[in-house]
Structure prediction request, 587 residues.
Amino acid sequence: MNASPLLLETRALRLEVAGRVLCESLSLQLQAGECLGVLGQNGTGKTTLLHTLARLRPAHGGEILLQGQSLNAWSRKALATRVGMLFQSSSDEMPASVEETVLLGRHPHLPDWQWEGAQDHALALAALEDVGLQAMAQREVVSLSGGERQRLALAMLLAQQPLLYLLDEPGNHLDIAFQVSTLQLLCARLPTQGAAVCMATHDINLAARFCTRILLLHPQGEPLLGSAQEILTPAILSEAYGCRIGVASAGTRQVFFAE
Amino acid sequence: MRQRHPLVLLSALLLLTAFSFLVSFSSGSANLGISTVLSQLFGQEPGLQQQILFELRIPRSLAGFVTGALLALSGVLMQVLLRNPLADPYILGISGGAAVAALAAILLGASAVWISNAAFAGALLSILIVFGLARGDSTWSSTRLLLTGVVVSAGWGALINILLTTSANNSVYSMLFWLMGDLSQSRVGWISASILLGGLSLMLWQARALNVLARGDLQAAALGVEVSRLKLQLYVCTSVLTACAVTIAGSIGFVGLVIPHMLRLLGARDHRLLIPAAVLLGGSFLMLADSLARSIVAPLQLPVGVVTAIIGVPVFLLILRRTRSGRE
Prediction:
């Protein structure tokens, strides 16, 4: 279709959690500029898949290639300059300011013994502006609300400048305006950065709005992979979620809801 | 903020360290004023004062500085390792193991050197036990490590009580001094100084990675930190530093807990600043506490661990109150 470089590829990927098989053989390709949505019921392995793609847990079979090279062949640091992850929750036990935290995103880009330079500070500040936290740079992380912490985590990810953005529930704690504006901002940058997004979410409407392709995980059986139009239909969704899901049209958009 | 603080804080701490050394040299039963100390240091007139200074005061001050520095550095590292701001160097039972071995040596009537050797062996034994039990499936969960350490620590506590209740009165007195932490017999050699410098350099090298690790294991791995390797380094480093400190001076409390907190409150949360600052402030704090310990009831001496606790408890409670009101 186009000449976008292949960023990520899985071949016959097998995922297990505590002896339970989540998927037998997943083969998918992700190209620069794409936004892939991962949907499915609770416990179908959305987070497990993202963690496996970020090499935070081992795959139980098959192969993952990042830029044509096996994921395991990358050093942890080199990997972190290409793959970044937004987690569902963060640990804030140790005190830190917003600015200190967002600068951590630059860690993989800096050699040992080197402090963050002017460019790193500029990137960190730009990331804070992107998520609307620039006025809170000196605040303590513990004093932030849940939504502000989620935006901070997102700013840290933006400062990391990976090629593959793995987002686990990016809409968590965010109000509807921020859900849309942050993903809009991210998706708009993908083509120029040569980057791609893979996001796991429970929000079918968020996925419908931003994702070009959908991976739908099933509690039993193999996952479905296809374009958003193919997968996001009431029949397929109702079966995957085990409840009746309807769709309504609102202007040019479709809105999914549980009946 | 970040550009101004590091050098200001570190210079202030260097001045404090120099001041603490002078105070420590001049305090004790024999009154050497600071001017006497300075003239002896730079002029060297032979006599009793010089003998007191070079044979008693300076070695003891150095022992105090190195011990305080070891404990404060170990405290900083233990708090990141366990991702728990209330962790202290003794929480994983290292001091308990050292204490049981040291008390057994006292019971057998061993000399000071052998009590130290026994303490070091006991600390190593405890490190290995906790390491072996907590490693489990190589994932290094902080909770598992903490639980194992706390339980092993409780076991050592029971053994300490058995030793205390079954020993003769005169050895119980020595045992209590050891348990409270005491610098009167302490000397430091090249080994402890090298351990301090080695731990300091290794952790300064990893300092930025420690900042990342404080955000959680998964987040750190996603930002390019080899988490298992770093945690292993942290565990070995903090254990050896603590073992070295308890070997020098017994289990002196509160330095490893309070110093990192004081510095964080002063704005040093970045480990690249916190680590060297903890070494300086920990060393100075223990030297000053020891100066008090040997001058407030002179010619008697209090165990320095009592003084650190007497200063440490109110300071820590105050810090805790301030941080809580800061969050609200």
Summary: Residues 1-82+162-178+191-232 of chain A form a domain with the Rossmann fold fold (CATH 3.40.50.300). The radius of gyration of chain A is 19 Å. The mean pLDDT of chain A is 92. Chain A has nine helices and twelve strands.
